[in-house]
Specification:
The protein is of the alpha/beta class and 256 residues long. It contains 9 helices and 8 strands. The chain binds nickel (II) ion.
Length: 256
């Protein structure tokens, strides 16, 4: 049974057909879907979906793009929301120096505040890193962000960084780009890191894997990333499903 460890099924892209999307996920062998917030509103929606559907869990937090929205009031509301038993982690947070929709200073401040929130609640953090590898690693080390473990979502960095992140308490999560032919650097990371620290995700509605590239992404398609990982690791799809399921339940502390 597969777990999509990072999905945005509360996104407006799924407003019309979420029940059908969830049905297809179940048919594709998904046991759990982790619904990740990117601002306060989508975090509230993630918790609402987790309460409604037994296979859904929530991650609450503010994406680096929206770091500028994290004022004292929102942070306090996030502390309250994060105490909900359906919430399995804090995120997605981190740094995105590619788009810089919030300034680097706003992003770093929001990242550190969310790391502190995760530590206070003994929860893992879900990190987004785009063109900010060194800065993300510096904050992780300085703030001991991996104290309650954490997830580096949609990993696109090189092997030495992945190893540093694993040593700092992190799991490495692969999304649809793992299935792309030209993703040799990511294939190398997936081939060489310890399998006990590998997760799979869709990041839907974005990053659709092959052979559905160009279409809207959805949790059922995580099976395609699992298949690619099985090929890279020379294991059966069943073994990959079993191992990544265990890893996801361990880092998110899901008991059932
Ligand atoms: Ni995401």
């Amino acid at each position: 049974m597969l777990i999509d460890t990072h999905a945005h099924i509360q996104d407006k892209e799924f407003k019309k057909d979420l029940p059908e999307v969830l049905e297809r996920a179940e048919k594709a062998g998904l046991e759990k879907i982790i619904c990740v917030g990117y601002d306060y509103e989508t975090s509230v929606e993630a918790v609402a979906l987790a309460r409604k559907y037994p296979q859904v869990r929530a991650v609450v937090g503010i994406h680096p793009h929206d770091a500028k929205t994290l004022n004292t009031e929102i942070l306090q509301k996030l502390y309250v929301l994060a105490r909900d038993p359906e919430v399995v982690a804090i995120g997605e947070t981190g740094l995105d120096f590619y788009r810089n929709r919030s300034t680097p200073e706003q992003q770093k401040k929001a990242f550190i505040e969310q790391v502190k929130l995760a530590q206070e609640l003994y929860k893992p953090v879900v990190i987004h890193d785009r063109e900010a590898h060194q800065e993300v690693l510096d904050i992780i080390k300085k703030e001991k962000a991996g104290k309650n473990e954490g997830i580096m979502h949609c990993y696109s960095g090189h092997l030495p960084l992945a190893i540093d992140l694993i040593k700092a308490g992190f799991y490495i999560s692969f999304a649809g780009p793992l299935t792309f032919k030209n993703a040799q650097k990511t294939h190398e990371v997936a081939a060489k890191i310890v399998i006990e620290r590998i997760l799979i995700e869709t990041d839907c509605p974005y990053l659709t894997p092959e052979p559905w590239r160009g279409k809207r992404n959805e949790p059922a398609y995580v099976a395609s990333t699992a298949r690619k990982l099985a090929e890279i690791r020379h294991k059966s799809e069943e073994e990959i499903a079993y191992i990544t399921n265990l890893n996801a339940k361990k880092v998110y502390r899901i008991k059932d």
